[in-house]
Fold this protein.
Amino acid sequence: MIKVRSKDTIQYGKSIINLHYVEQLVNESQTRAIAGILSHIERKNLLCSSKTMKDVLEYVQQEIERNGLKYFASSKKEEGELAEPRVHEIAAALNRLRSLSVR
């Protein structure tokens, strides 16, 4: 379960991802997009494969360019409620996920 609690907080299962010091996030819509991206990464099992963090972030960026943010929306309703985060903010969220282990 991935849920956005505020502009600065994503609940990822039992873990809390604190984005308080990611100052470039200015809107909860960006945080919602990050949560959708994290959910997509989990569904595609990208972090358990042989991909590096750089590979995963490049994949995400390519999917955003190809399909737009709606590709990562959890529902039709959410499609209009997403704002594009920079790859740095996505990396910051992944970095703050304590249960994550990548090479």
Notes: The chain is about 40% helix and 15% strand. The beta strands are 2-6, 9-12, 15-18. The two ends are 24 Å apart (CA to CA). The mean pLDDT is 89.
